[in-house]
Automatic annotation (TrEMBL):
Coiled coil: none
Location of this fragment in the whole protein: 373 to 626 of 627
Protein name: Sensory box protein
EAL domain segment(s): 1-254
Domain of life: Bacteria
Length: 254
């Protein structure tokens, strides 16, 4: 309860901020985008991990306000980079299932796009397959409405949690993100390598791009090159960076 009350005032107190993790082409290392990841500096000092506070926010409608704040702050930063000549091709933003199911979700995305001047073609929303467990028709309609104006969708944490192939089949998404737990023991775990190969084959036939998450080594990247995975992110390229460091990272690549 204590942490919930602190989180409730975190936006007003300016305690939330964003880091951005670069995403690259597997084949040639080109930058294809960044994923915005929220951070919380409680009282300006103590850092609390989103792995800890996002689940708390998700138990209530607090995730809706936090989600809108994240989307707005990320889009604003993205437009700012463009004005500075920092060329980031795409912005990925996490959307929690509860936030997605809010009645105002589509309108709030439209409002943020308009307010910030963000090009919808450059916005990618990361959801999980659990969005179609309940209210599937409604969820698919929301995704289709946003896709029609150019927004794309990625299925996050693919392969863990509530993942199910029958949910996946129904999702009008553009991309799958293979959870980092399947990547971390490559090239030592034969089962994980088989799973990644199978996901890539399935994704190819279903028309999904694939991003491998949590790539930490050259051997992992080489495996993904051999398997013709499209994109990757992970500490091997970069940890999540502040907006300022992300701009330097991109300028170094340009
Ligand atoms: O950045 P880090 O690896 O510490 O994130 C931990 C978890 O918090 C991840 O599962 C990530 O998806 C989630 N997360 C980070 N930022 C956001 C956000 O802005 N919104 C939502 N819903 N989840 C986020
Ligand atoms: O669930 P989601 O994909 O949104 O979570 C991203 C989280 O994974 C971020 O909190 C980020 O800090 C973390 N992360 C990103 N790259 C790596 C990596 O290479 N290794 C590990 N262990 N964690 C990573
Ligand atoms: Mn994500
Ligand atoms: Na993930």
């Amino acid at each position: 309860l204590h942490i919930y009350n602190c989180l409730k005032s975190a936006i007003a107190k300016n305690e939330l901020f964003l880091h951005y993790q670069p995403q690259h082409m597997v084949q040639n290392g080109e930058i294809i985008g960044v994923e915005a990841l929220v951070r919380w500096h409680l009282g300006g000092k103590q850092q609390i991990s989103p792995a800890e506070f996002i689940p708390i926010a998700e138990e209530t409608d607090l995730i809706i306000d936090i989600g809108i704040w994240v989307l707005q702050a990320a889009c604003r930063q993205f437009v700012e980079w463009q004005l500075q000549g920092v060329n980031v091709p795409q912005l990925s933003v996490n959307v929690s299932t509860r936030q997605f199911h809010d009645n105002n979700f589509v309108d709030s995305v439209l409002m943020v796009l308009e307010e910030t001047g963000m090009d919808p073609m450059q916005l990618n929303l990361e959801i999980t397959e659990s969005v179609v467990i309940e209210h599937a028709e409604d969820a698919i309609r929301k995704m289709t409405d946003l896709k029609n104006i150019g927004v794309s969708f990625a299925v996050d944490d693919f392969g863990v949690g509530y993942s199910s192939l029958s949910y996946l089949k129904r999702l009008p998404a553009n991309e799958l993100k293979i959870d980092r737990s399947f990547i971390q023991n490559i090239p030592y775990n034969v089962s994980d390598m088989a799973i990644v190969e199978a996901v890539l084959a399935m994704a190819k036939h279903m028309g999904f791009n694939v991003t491998a998450e949590g790539v930490e080594s050259r051997q992992q990247l080489e495996f993904l090159q051999r398997q013709q995975c499209s994109f990757y992110q992970g500490f091997y390229a970069s940890k999540p960076l502040s907006a300022e460091y992300l701009a330097l990272y991109i300028k170094r690549l340009q």
